[in-house]
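sorry for the late reply, my laptop died twice this morning and i had to redo everyting from scratch. anyway the thing you sent over, i finally got around to it. pasting the sequence first so we're on the same page, its 327 residues, then the predicted structure underneath. double check i copied it right bc i was rushing
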Amino acid sequence: MSRTLDLELISLTKRYGDTVAVDAISYHFTAGTYACLLGPSGCGKSSTLRMIAGHEAVSDGAITLGGRDISHLPPAKRGTAMMFQNYALFPHLTVRDNVGFSLKMQGIDAAKQRTRAGEMLELVDMTALADRLPAQLSGGQQQRAALARALITEPEVLLLDEPLSALDPFLRVRMRTELKKLQRELGITFVHVTHGQDEALALADEIVVMNAAKIEQAGKTRAVFDAPQTAFVARFLGSHNVVSMPGGMVAIRSDALRITPAGTARLPGTITSIEYQGTHVALTAAVPGDQEVTAVLSDRDFFDDPKNPGEAIGLDWEAEAAHALAG
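ok and here's the structure:
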């Protein structure tokens, strides 16, 4: 693959009439990283991806790749490639011809098309299925064919729009592993849009959490997860409790909460539900202020000292496990 270049969004804005879909966002993607744009439906993440790809016009701001402004270039001239949510394979073409289609459009001779398509199919472990039509492939195989077709153009940046959403849960986990492995082998930047927290945490070196057309928080995945800055980020990433305390609002990881006897901790609670989840148990309790918190305990810890709904308990945590929130 080609050399790796930095991708940067500079006050990037997208308007549809009076509606602002993306509101002056700025972010620098580290070259060669796997990044996820994460957020609820309608937050602006797909519009952002489509502007990077050149499939949506930029209203204001700029997109640069390797310091070159690509904001107004046609998609084929940007150094990016996009894999669509529905894969968009041509039903009447074989897998090999689908993969080589962009080379055909460039006027590259048939022998070279075939050779390059073969190399890409080998990369995604699809060589044996080269002569099949898309309808003869499983969902996971269609995804691999779409990946090979995107990669044949040797992009600097691969853009993925909810690429796992059409797959069943088991295959989704398997394809996550394959995407991450492929990104490491290629060494190029992947920018992946998802609304799935687990997917983003499993894949991304960097996450950009979007909310209401803006970036709510962004950075290295572990740093964002360990120290959410706002209540929205803490709740959206999951595995955190957002609790109003006398000193303000804090986020506390569910696995950082300790269960203690009633009256012995900083937060009294009453157990409302207990959910066994195999390796761990999620215990939810009502606490003062009409709030609920969830503590995640190992199955061994819980069953060594089992609790019941309706039981009064204390909830405590180490001071460093609580992070003050901006709102």
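The chain has two domains: 7-226, 231-324.
thats about all i looked at so far, will dig more tmrw
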